[in-house]
Structures are given as structure tokens and as C-alpha cells.
Specification:
Layout: H1 3-30, H2 35-60, H3 67-86, H4 89-116, H5 121-148
Helix pairs in contact: 1-2, 1-3, 1-4, 2-5, 3-4, 4-5
Length: about 150
């Protein structure tokens, strides 16, 4: 993959992560004053770190983080976060799991491509760390969802 293709892929992640920041901020406000709300706020902070490290890498490569992502992604994330939250905590967690699964799949695909081509090892580490964070978010959402499910057989 050439530099322009890689920058394009990184801009996809930049937009995705911006979307997730505002999604989780909106959800934290819906569930404000609760442990869940605090967790969503913390997850938004971690997603913002992803935005920052991807933007930095794009700039290091001579690219510019997409302006479309800067404008559209936060709007979409905020609206989606509010709408999803209104459907209740269970549906919010289910939607978040789906979103995180998409992010993990995309990270995994890019990580594999970079490994195959033996490209930038620093970028590889950043993407792997972001992938781990997405996996941890998914596990947390899944655990909270399981806690909300009634136990079977009782």
C-alpha cells in the first residue's frame, strides 16, 4: 500500500474515532450521575487519544486529517449517541458493541496489511494499542449487558 492509500485509511480511522468520541460523550450525558455515565465519559477520553495519535501520524506522513471528519463525524456521533441512548441502556450497549466490532475488524485488517508489507513499526504499535482498547471497550459493554440480562433457569 502506498503512502496516499495509507493516509486515506488513517483518515477513515480518524473519522471513525471522532464519531465515537461524540457518541460516548452524548451517552455519558444521557446517563450522567451514574457509573455507566462515568464509564462512557472515560471511554470517550480514550477514543480522543485515538483521534490524537492518528492525526499526529497522518501529519507525520505529510497528510492532513480530513476536514470532513472534523465536521461531520462529531455531528453524526452526537446525534447517534443521543438517539441510541433514548432506547435504553441495553440497546445502547448492544449498539456500542456493534460499533466497536466494526472498529476492531477495520483495525485488524489494516494491522495485517502493515505487517505483510513490513511498514512503519511505530504506526503498527499505535494501531495495535488502539485495537486493544476497542477490544476492552467491547468486553466491558458485553459484561454490563450480561449484568442486565435476567438469569435463565430461575
Amino acid at each position: 500500500m502506498d503512502k496516499e492509500q495509507l493516509i486515506s485509511k488513517l483518515n477513515w480511522f480518524y473519522s471513525l474515532e471522532l464519531n465515537q468520541v461524540d457518541l460516548y460523550i452524548a451517552q455519558s450525558r444521557t446517563f450522567e450521575g451514574t457509573y455507566i455515565g462515568q464509564a462512557f465519559e472515560r471511554i470517550a477520553y480514550i477514543e480522543q487519544q485515538h483521534v490524537d495519535n492518528i492525526a499526529e501520524k497522518i501529519k507525520e506522513m505529510g497528510g492532513i486529517p480530513t476536514k470532513t471528519g472534523d465536521v461531520i463525524s462529531p455531528i453524526i456521533g452526537s446525534i447517534a449517541g443521543k438517539l441510541i441512548s433514548f432506547s435504553g441502556l441495553k440497546n445502547t450497549l448492544k449498539a456500542n458493541i456493534l460499533i466497536e466490532h466494526k472498529a476492531m475488524k477495520d483495525y485488524k485488517d489494516l494491522i495485517e496489511a502493515i505487517k505483510l508489507e513490513n511498514q512503519d513499526q511505530e504506526l503498527l504499535k499505535i494501531l495495535q494499542n488502539n485495537h486493544v482498547d476497542e477490544d476492552l471497550h467491547t468486553a466491558w459493554f458485553s459484561e454490563k449487558l450480561n449484568e442486565l440480562q435476567p438469569e435463565k433457569g430461575l
